[in-house]
Specification:
Blueprint (H helix, E strand, L loop, with lengths): L3 H21 L26 H17 L5 E6 L5 H11 L1 H5 L7 H10 L27 H9 L5 E8 L6 H9 L11 E4 L15 H10 L3 E6 L5 H19 L4 E6 L9 E2 L2 E2 L18 H12 L3 H4 L8 H9 L24 H13 L4 E5 L17 E3 L3 H13 L3 E7 L7 H11 L10 E6 L13 H9 L4 E4 L4 H13 L4 E5 L13 H7 L1 E3 L11 E6 L1 H18 L3 E6 L17 H8 L4 E6 L3 H8 L7 E4 L10 H8 L3 H18 L1
Helix pairs in contact: 1-2, 1-3, 1-5, 1-9, 1-12, 2-3, 6-7, 6-14, 13-17, 16-21, 19-23
């Protein structure tokens, strides 16, 4: 370990050097010739300010992981998406990039290819990616890395998860709440490295304004010890100091003493100090590269040449660009740990899911899945309100009044191959929108496949609640993405809730949103349940005429199903027409099959909806979500009844009547559709 300071210095300098190359160069990446305008990109771009501190942390973590006993896994995570250039550089230096993408080998040609391709690096882009080391945080936005790390470390003995987060991230409410929430997690080895360089992106950071004593007091008040290391020049002594502090922090973490390691440095250090008479170092000007015109401006070019040379690349690489000396030793010792799956095999016992109430169904399914030992249930202090108080005391259950933190806990948990569920109210769920969209984006990238799904169970929607608790916006947003991994499930009764939840908890690569009532009173025959589960919808024979329908009523959710059940015969007899009722378990089947895996083909559309029938869709959510899925593909009269924001508080009866979600409203809409159908014919 004594020589690790030398190795860390070599690895850190190599990563910084490769990062500057990526931002600026297209050739002469080893400076074998004097730097000229022809060697430089026409428009250098990218983020520099976070590079030196992030590279410092990753270099030390990779070497520490190589020193640790294999029984301890040290898993780094990058919180800042703009640190992607560091991740690419680190992966090139240590060889992971070349193994993933042939052509980016650990030599001069590989670095040249990498520099020329940045920021559009062969499907990896310029942001942090899950395909490379330290990229398992499936976020893509600021603030979620710390709670994600907590979820990934929870109940994972021998694992220390190290989120590398900035002082700007610490100003986000998600990170701020996660510091305090960590005290409720007795079994999570998390060692945050807080990169305090004094700035957010464009202004001074709040943490950066605190002196060391106040920083320690801040973390102490939140339940954390804080080790603080100041780095100014990147000297051997500073490397040795950080290395010692890191090992002390790892020991404290393994002994269940929450400890954060604070790296204090200057924004953009080792970059240009000044340009054109203006100070750059320690200012927001170094957030991105300040040398934007080295082809046209001699001062920019000269500064860039000095900047690159300051890392002494000839000491790091031989004439072919391969690591030499201490860097070669560092690459050999470096080890990257990942969130390996801890998921046990699925039990073989069949699910018994035909209980008659929401509470008994959900409790039963959840307990069956928890028996496997890899299950996590989260809720924002709503289990009792959601009729699930008997689950609240279980070891695998956590309640916290911070939905964004819960989402990241669940995401970190599932990223290590384990299954879980977040139970909340539909009206609170829009708080999760940004996080879910970020996770959906990341889960489509290389390195993030075959993970258990993110599952949400949402109850207490606006149709059954007070005025302030009516907001189906999350489902509308997710459906608008057109992302194939999204499922919006709307079971009509407890049996269908059980089936949907059971299947969701066993699925992979999806975001499942189950929207269901906790006070469901209407039960429906189960003869079509298997088809609803396998195909996402089914005709309900007990409410449908056998012949080709004149009107097809499509229901999505328990209230629509109950209203259609009551209205079907009245419409049939009142209008002397043939009626078919189709129940949707999965809203995405209404989308085009080119975008949605379960989207109905033209033949299937005619099979379920009829060849010429008018269509009336009843949905719990916004009509706009259904219209967006249909996208004008039904060449027939169509109407959608769903949630519209009321002007003020209404009783449940008045609310349903105002929006047309009652028997009178459905009959009226059916009449208009049937009349329009006759005109079309």
């Amino acid at each position: 370990m004594e020589g690790n300071a030398v190795l860390a210095d070599a690895l850190w300098r190599a990563v910084c050097y490769a990062s500057v190359c990526q931002l600026h160069l297209r050739d002469n990446v080893l400076l074998h010739q004097p730097l000229t305008a022809e060697h430089v990109k026409e428009r250098p771009s990218g983020h520099w300010g976070t590079v030196p501190g992030t590279a410092w942390a990753l270099s030390h973590l990779a070497l520490a992981a190589g020193d640790l006993d294999r029984e301890v896994s040290l898993v780094p995570l990058l919180g800042a998406g703009h640190a992607g250039v560091v991740q690419l550089s680190t992966s090139w230096v240590t060889g992971e990039l070349g193994r993933l993408r042939p052509g980016f080998d650990q030599d001069a040609d590989g670095l040249r290819r990498l520099s020329r391709s940045f920021p559009d690096v062969d499907g990896l882009g310029a942001e942090v990616t899950p395909a490379l080391p330290a990229g398992a945080f499936l976020g893509g936005r600021l603030g979620g890395c710390l709670p994600f790390a907590q979820g990934a470390a929870l109940d994972a003995p021998g694992r220390i998860v190290v989120p590398v987060i900035g002082d700007g991230e610490c100003e986000t409410p998600t990170t701020a709440a996660a510091w305090l929430a960590h005290g409720t997690l007795a079994r999570a080895g998390v060692l945050p490295v807080v990169h305090v360089n004094g700035f957010r992106m464009g202004g001074p950071s709040l943490l950066g304004a605190l002196d060391d004593d106040h920083l320690r007091a801040y973390f102490s008040g939140l339940g954390w010890e804080a080790g603080i290391v100041r780095v100014a020049s990147g000297s051997q002594a500073e490397h040795a100091s950080f290395q010692a502090a890191l090992w002390d922090a790892m020991e404290a973490t393994l002994n269940d003493r929450p400890t954060a390691l604070v790296l204090r440095c200057v924004k953009g250090w080792t970059g240009p100090v000044a340009l054109g008479g203006q100070t750059l170092l320690g200012t927001p000007a170094l957030h991105k590269t300040p040398l934007t015109s080295p082809r046209a401006d001699a001062e920019h070019l000269s500064q860039l040449a000095d900047w690159l040379a300051s890392y002494q690349p000839s000491q790091l690489f031989d004439t072919n660009g391969r690591a030499r000396g201490p860097l070669a030793e560092a690459v050999a010792q470096a080890r990257w740990c990942s969130l390996t799956s801890t998921r046990p095999e699925a039990p073989s016992n069949p699910r018994e899911s035909l209980a008659a109430t929401f509470a008994s169904v959900v409790s039963g399914i959840v307990r069956q899945h928890a028996e496997r030992g890899d299950f996590l249930l989260l809720s924002p202090d709503e289990l009792a309100s959601n009729r699930l108080p008997d689950l609240a005391g279980e070891r695998w259950v956590h309640e916290l009044l911070a939905e964004e933190v819960l989402l990241e806990w669940l995401a970190g948990w599932t990223a290590s191959g384990r299954r879980g569920l977040l139970v909340s109210y539909e009206s609170f769920a829009p708080l999760l929108t940004s996080g879910l969209v970020g996770h959906i984006k990341q889960r489509r990238l290389d390195g993030a496949q075959d993970l258990p799904s993110l599952n949400l169970l949402l109850t207490s929607y606006g149709w059954q609640n007070v005025h302030t608790h009516g907001d189906p916006s999350l489902a509308t947003t997710l459906l608008a993405l057109g992302a194939p991994g999204v499922r919006v499930l709307t079971p009509a009764d407890p049996a269908r809730t059980a089936a949907a939840l059971d299947e969701a908890l066993e699925s992979v690569d999806r975001v499942n949103v189950v929207i269901t009532g906790k006070n469901i009173r209407t039960l429906h025959p189960n003869e079509s349940l298997a088809e609803e589960l396998s195909r996402g919808l089914a005709v309900w024979p007990h409410l449908s005429d056998e012949d080709e329908p004149d009107l097809t009523i499509v229901t999505a959710g328990d209230i629509p199903a109950a209203v259609a059940t009551e209205a079907a015969d009245r419409i049939r007899h009142g209008h002397r027409c043939r009626v078919r009722v189709v129940n949707l378990l999965d809203l995405t089947v209404l989308g085009a099959p080119t975008a949605w895996p379960r989207g109905l083909s033209g033949t299937e559309t005619e099979h379920y909806l009829g060849t010429h029938a008018a269509v009336l869709v009843l949905t719990l959510g916004h009509p706009a979500a259904v219209w967006g899925l249909l996208a004008g593909r039904l060449r027939r009269p169509v109407e959608v009844i769903g949630w519209r924001e009321p002007a003020g508080p209404l009783s449940q009866r008045d609310l349903a009547h105002t929006m047309g979600m009652d028997v009178v409203g459905v009959e009226r809409a059916a009449g208009f559709l049937l009349a329009a159908r006759e005109v079309v014919r």
